[in-house]
Request: fold
Amino acid sequence: MTLPLLILYLYFLYLVIERPSKADPDKEEYFEDRIRLTDILYCYLVTLVAFSSLVAYLIWFVRKRRKLSRSYETEGITILGDVEYDDGYGDVNGGFLAMFLRFVKNGCRRNDYGFVVYDLEKVANHPACDYYDKHVEKQKAGKRGKQSKPLGKIRKNVRVYHHYPRESVSILVLPKYPYSGQPKIDLEADWASFAERNGIPSEFDDESYNDYDQVGDADPRINLPKTLSRDRSLGVLIISAFWISFCFFGALYICFQIEVIEEYYPDESAGWAWGVFWITCGGIVPIVAGLGNYLRWKRYEWWILKSGKVLNSGGSNDADGMKADEGSYVQMT
Reply:
């Protein structure tokens, strides 16, 4: 996907290499239309910031997201609940407006989201959940605590992999976070998307499966080969690392070239170029890649663990007793 961009940037690099040979007022090439090297530098640095942020996202954010998702498998409790899903604008024959709205919705990935509804009383009454008991103890001790008992049902925006409504299905909830409910089969689909072993046994495994003793031997299907994995983050990480190196050293070379030609072109300044380069590499990249991904993670963590509406006769409140919002969030891999 980045090949056309690479061709363009290689062309820019060619212009940077050739520019000193044209920096002579006695040559006709000097008066030809040109792209400023400073503008090319901006392109390289903007791309450097973008791919640096992507690498930080893949290395840090994605790992934390997957760890949080996996915690449902080991720590989650199971209750029954419903999944609400409305494809919306699904009638292709509904006219141009319906088709346009469907295109926009699919492009924004809003069709990958639905709502899960489950009873908070079931969470509170589960033996593994002592969340509300701790708040009762805090209230008795005179400490500030949230509601001592859950009221009604919660309606929460979640990522869905199965695009249809469901009733009385398994919902996984983390005991420490009653508002963290997620549909079990959708979580299993999420786990499969980054599983290391995701495939079918080889021919040898099939033969051994036909011959193994079901009582004394281990089922060979538990040792699936590392094939057919849908996790593509490593490939994206390698490509992003290449782009970071290419843009960093390319921008560095452009600054040196601007030093050579600045006396011939009044709109080129080596001092300005070096200033922009170091501010970008030493300031903008860490802020966007580091702080940006950290803030995005805190938003995502809140969406998973604490967002949602409590549905009761007294009104709809969120986890903190304030007026709730939908807790919308666009989740990436």
